Amino acid sequence: MTNSNSEHAATGLDTRPAPRISVIGTGYLGATHAAAMAEMGFDTIGVDVDPSKLAALAAGEVPFYEPGLPELITKHVASGKLRFTADLAEAVASSDVHFICVGTPQRAGSHAANLSYVESATRSVAEHLTHPGLIVGKSTVPVGTAARLRALVAEFSPAGIDVELIWNPEFLREGKAVEDTLHPDRLVWGGASAAADAVIREVYAAPIAEGTPVIATDLPTAELVKVSANAFLATKISFINAISELCDIAGADVTTLADALGHDVRIGRKFLNAGLGFGGGCLPKDIRALMHRSSELGANRVVGLMQQVDEINMGQRQRVIDMAIEAAQGSVLNRRIAVIGAAFKPLTDDVRDSPALNVAAALHLRGAQVSLWDPEAMETAKRSFPTLTYAESMEAAVEGADMVLVLTEWDDIVQADPSSLRALVGRAIVIDARNCIPVTDWVKAGWSVRSLGRTASVAGAPVSIAAGTNDLMATSR
Ligand code: NAD
Known about the structure:
Blueprint: E1 21-24, H1 28-39, E2 44-47, H2 51-58, H3 69-79, E3 82-85, H4 88-93, E4 97-100, H5 116-128, E5 133-137, H6 145-156, E6 163-167, H7 177-182, E7 187-190, H8 194-203, H9 205-209, E8 214-217, H10 219-250, H11 254-262, H12 283-297, H13 300-327, E9 336-340, H14 355-365, E10 369-373, H15 378-384, E11 389-390, H16 394-398, E12 403-406, H17 411-414, H18 418-424, E13 429-432, H19 439-444, E14 448-451, H20 455-459
Parallel strand pairs: 1-2, 1-4, 2-3, 4-5, 5-6, 7-8, 9-10, 9-12, 10-11, 12-13, 13-14
Helix pairs in contact: 1-3, 5-6, 10-12, 10-13, 12-13, 13-14
Bound molecules: nicotinamide-adenine-dinucleotide.
């Protein structure tokens, strides 16, 4: 891929042949965006305040797991298209379009987003402008943030320098970040003048040429598109998880139900997997920030809806903890529990607000001997929860276990041979908290399988509502 290399002097923002790019914040979003910009042919410079992250990236090493990203960064550090610096002034002076990609985590003691990083990064870019530029916000922010940032830019940018701020939210998925950034399913930006619109279209010329739909809108709509997308996905997950509880009580199978629902094109099958619920660095904090901002603005229906979604989601973690305690006949004290998975989802080593790590830690705190294994997230998990025992392999984790908990749906466990694992454990009980293992094969291999919303099919016999039994121990299917 190459950029159009066309002149865009008409925009008044710059007179060079193609915009040069700075990316402020080189975490999951920024490192991927910077690499993608270089791949699209732009001279790109990544800036961060974390020197160890910069050193790793400059050496072509990505300090987190993201398939395809190390190769792309290595390729463009070598080609000279991509470099990294801690010197924001230098980056701003040598670029024309400045992408703000810093974090917007949940504020301590509040549901609100912590906007201090976005504010500080935007202000620093404005202060260091030496020539006309376009500031493009990509971080996920509450509606109304960009308008406030515009005021900051107006206050702190040098007099006489032409600068504009627009918002261009990012929809990439961790684990598929490179593909999603190079070939996005849509491009959304808000608040662009005709000049800024021309520049951002030039930056995204390659995906636009591939037919990626463009939605150019106002600032609040652009901000809200991202937050609403995450709120909708979270609602879909919590919906099926609420239904899974009913399935358990009524003796229905939530997986079959989801398959049947998914055939309706208005519903779709994605994000309808009942299980331990969502986590990670985005969905939980984004729905809470939406709750907070909606409350500030008096949109109380959104507050109530998001509250329910969050409660159902967090309740799934407790359901799995309770299930483990029940399987251990009332106490997990000194029970050996093998936990497979720490990452909040497969294909990432991200353990931010990970349901898997949350459940593992809760069982550990109740006195269980937790032995955890994850194919990619061992280091990040150890940093967040050093007191758990980390096993060298899946086999080592399950060795002698009284119970196995599948908490992240990695292929390694989905495709594992249940007979070989059966031979290693003390008691062949598995809680499939992601509804991901082939239950029939596991039951055939002698396992008792427990899962969320699948009582009937896992147990192999209808469960009587009248009897009120909720025994999930399976011996056949
Ligand atoms: P992250 O924590 O991985 O990265 C943020 C980076 O910004 C860190 O490396 C930090 O050191 C750096 N930083 C903070 N202040 C800075 C400053 N003043 N100057 C330069 N660098 C600074 O976070 P992330 O997951 O990349 O998320 C960033 C934003 O993108 C968030 O708003 C998030 O909601 C949004 N987002 C993330 C994803 C995702 O999948 N991770 C997807 C879409 C949108």
